Each structure stands twice: as structure tokens, then as C-alpha cells.
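Morning. Coffee machine broken again, so started the prediction first thing and wrote up yesterday's gels while waiting. Chain of 203 residues, entered below exactly as on the submission form.
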Amino acid sequence: MCGAALVGQVSLANTDQAQTAGAQSSGAGTSEVKTSARQGATRQNPQTGKQAPEQKAQAPKPPVIPPGYRLLSLKEGRAIAQGIAWADDEEGLAPDCSHLVHALYQQAGYPYAYASSLDLYRGTAPFLRVRNAHPGDLVVWRGHVGIVVNPREHSFFSTTSSGARIENYRSAYWRARGYPHFFRYLTRSSPKASTGTAEASNH
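Came back before lunch.
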């Protein structure tokens, strides 16, 4: 019986050792999986030795001027702004903002298919969004549009509740409507005209 007891103790000891070894092996496998996951999340840059994310957000590409077109020059934009003369609107008979802007561009010799202020804000031909405003550019919010008169003074011309008038697009009222988008008209390039590369630099 003592022999049988000894055999039983040896068998139990072997079983305990096997279970302990299995648990250690399982723990090692889990650790390797976690380590592999951490290494997969970041990789070292071979040049700098610093860890960098696996994926990087791509920077948005600047807008491209279509072939055969150019942005209006500063001189042409000033001519639009100087030509704004909505005479005697004391009775508030001016059209709404988008129709007013459309009519003024037509009179200045820069026609385009009528678009609402919301469509203009989203972007529509033949206008290209620019970062820095010039005289004659469109200044557009969601639901309102005007024509920049003097960007240094942040002034623009549009229809308001009190008629067509010049306003400051950085006043508290207009700032409360959000940051405006600026758009410049695209016109066809003449054979001798420049390609508009210099003006595209402010996008």
C-alpha cells in the first residue's frame, strides 16, 4: 500500500508540474500577443529612430485652376468693387442677396448661372475658393452672400433687412453667423495673359 501511495504522489506531482508549465506557456503566449499588437500599432522610423503612427492623415490638396482659365486679377476685382452703385434703395427694393450679387457680376461682364447663397457656399463654377480676400470676391455664409469691397476694412456690399448697403464682415453680427468662405471668379485666359500662377499662391 505504501508503494501504491508513493506512485499516486508521484503521479499527482507530475500532473501539478504539467499544469504549472502549461499556465506559464499560456501566459507567455498572451504576453507575446500583447507585445505584437503594440509593435503593430507603432513602427520605428529608420532615419529618426522615433516611433510613428501606422497611418498618417493626408493633407488636403490645394484647388487646381482648370486649363484655359485664370483667377480675376486684383485690378479686375477692384473694378467690380468700384462699380457697385445701388442707387437710392431707401425703400428696400433691392433683390435678395444672391440675386443682387448675380446681377452685379452680370453688369461687370462676368456672367454665371444663378446659384443660391447655399450653393455658392458649398462651391460652384465658375468660382474658386481662396484664403485671402480681394476686392470683388464673394464673401459667403450659409444663407448669405455679398461682394468684398475693401478687405483691409473687412467691408462688403450686400442686401440686408434695411436694404442694399455696405457692412463689416467681422462685426459681431456677422461673426455670429460663422466664418465666411471667400470665392474668386474664374475667367478664360487670353493667349497673351499670364496663367494666374501668382494669384493662385494665396489659396
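The chain has two domains: 1-33, 69-200. Going to sketch it on the whiteboard this afternoon.
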